[in-house]
Structure formats: C-alpha cells, structure tokens
C-alpha cells in the first residue's frame, strides 16, 4: 500500500487514487505530490484521465479507492465547498463570470463570498464601496484596470478568463487549481494569461491541467504525465520531454 507523504513541503498529495465507472478504470492507482510554491502541471493525451483526476482532487468526483490529503489532513471524504474553505480553489475550464455585470461587480461578489456575506445585490452603496478598493487591486493584478466598468459580456475571451482568475483570487486561496486556463485562446491571450499565472504563483501553489505544451514548458516546475489513467512519467519538462514513453504517448503524437 502507498504511504501518504508527511513532508511539510507537500501541499496536496494523492495515494492510490482510483476511479472506476462500471468496471472501467478512468484513473488507476495514481500517486501525486504537489510541492509548496510550485506550478505543477498534469498533462497527457486525450483520454489519459487528466480531467477525471482533476475532478477527484477537487472533490467533484469521489474516488473508488485511494486517499487525498491537503497539508497532511485527509480530505478524501470532504465535499468541494469544504475543500474551498480550506483554501483550495478551482478555476473552471469554461469561464464562470456573470456576463451582464461589470468586471468590478464580478470581483466584488467574490469578495462578499470570502467575507461570508450573502451575495445580495441591494446592499447599501457604503457597503459596496468598502469592497471597491480591494476589487480594483485584484483587477490591476490581472491587467483589467481599464475594464473595471466594462460588462463581462463585452470583453474578449482571454480577458474573461483573466476576470475569472481575479474572482478566484478574491477568495484568497493558498492553492489554485486551474483547469486548462489557455483553452480556446488566441496567441496573444495565451501569452497574457501565461504571464498572469506566473505572476500569481509567486505566493501560492498551483496545479493545472493544460494541453498547450509550450505553456507547460515555460511555466511548470514539475510535470506529471498520465496515460490510460496511470502515471507514465514525472519530472521537469526537460526530463519528461525526453522520456521515450512520453514521446510515443503524447508529445510525438502532438507534433507529428
């Protein structure tokens, strides 16, 4: 049996993580350690089990077998909302913002959530203004100061994703889980969001699923490669990109 790590530098850990659907193992016996202050990428070819593994780690799926720990605490049986309260926040692949509210209003709602307040839209101007300062700081952090008064529906896809990251940061996560942050983006947006991810990683831990290998190469400190639901290889990009099994299963297929 795999032993859960007791290393204090390991923030999120999985041992023997398995998910079966009617006898089919989408994820099988996965061990994973995400170290404090790193950007850890989870990659693999289509059907490798990345999304299932990510959903298990964020508790949107319950594992068939295995354990998940956060800061040494077993969180295997906890629901997603409780995981979020512990400081593990997931940003979704599909942009999740209120389209007809401004960027400032979207971030302000996230700040209300962090303060434990209901998301009332009829609060007094004084209460709402008290959140504006921090909301504007977060918009500046993600490069959206000029769009504070712009409805989200009028923003480009890349800027909507930046706004989503701002609303996620409003919850002040210790660990951020990014689900394909570059999916569907134009080249200029990819560069902008990659720089944003690098910037926000300076004081938090990030685990991300990402298909764009150039982004993975430039951002990641550590990479776990999945294939057919199992861990195929681990290490930095230089190591995994030279692994013949990875070249055959993923990188070679991508660049043929």
Characteristics:
four-stranded antiparallel β-sheet; single chain; alpha/beta; six-stranded mixed β-sheet; 10 strands; 2 domains; about 260 residues; about 35% helix; Rossmann fold; about 25% strand
Could you walk me through the main structural features you see in this protein, from its secondary elements to its overall organization?
- The protein has helices at residues 50-57, 80-85, 103-114, 125-141, 157-169, 187-200, 213-219, 237-241, 244-255, and strands spanning 10-21, 24-35, 39-43, 65-70, 73-74, 88-91, 175-179, 205-209, 222-227, 230-235.
- With 256 residues, it is an alpha/beta fold.
- The chain has a six-stranded mixed β-sheet with strand order 6-7-8-3-9-10, sandwiched between helices. It has a four-stranded antiparallel β-sheet with strand order 2-1-4-5, covered by helices on one side.
- The longest helix has 17 residues, at 125-141.
- The radius of gyration is 19 Å and the shape is globular.
- The model has no long low-confidence stretch (mean pLDDT 86).
């Amino acid at each position: 049996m795999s032993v859960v790590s007791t290393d204090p530098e390991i923030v999120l850990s999985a041992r023997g993580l398995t998910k079966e659907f009617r006898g089919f193992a989408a994820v099988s016996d996965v061990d994973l350690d995400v170290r404090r202050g790193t950007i850890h990428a989870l990659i693999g070819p289509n059907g490798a089990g990345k999304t299932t593994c990510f959903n298990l780690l964020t508790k949107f799926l319950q594992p068939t077998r295995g354990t998940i720990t956060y800061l040494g605490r077993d969180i295997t049986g906890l629901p997603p909302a409780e995981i979020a309260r512990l400081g593990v926040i997931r940003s979704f692949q599909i942009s999740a913002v209120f389209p007809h509210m401004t960027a400032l209003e979207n971030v302000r709602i996230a700040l209300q959530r962090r303060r434990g307040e209901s998301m009332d839209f009829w609060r007094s101007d004084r209460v709402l203004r008290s959140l504006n300062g921090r909301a504007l700081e977060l918009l500046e952090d993600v490069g959206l100061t000029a769009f504070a008064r712009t409805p989200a529906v009028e923003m480009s896809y890349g800027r909507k994703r930046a706004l989503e990251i701002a609303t996620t940061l409003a919850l002040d996560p210790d660990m951020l889980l990014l689900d394909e942050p570059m999916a569907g983006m134009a080249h200029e947006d990819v560069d902008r969001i990659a720089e944003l991810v690098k910037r926000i990683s300076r004081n938090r831990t990030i685990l991300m699923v990402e298909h764009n290998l150039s982004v993975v190469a430039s951002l990641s400190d550590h990479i776990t490669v999945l294939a057919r639901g199992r861990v195929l290889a681990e290490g930095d990009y230089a190591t995994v990109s030279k692994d013949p099994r990875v070249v055959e299963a993923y990188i070679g297929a991508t660049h043929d």
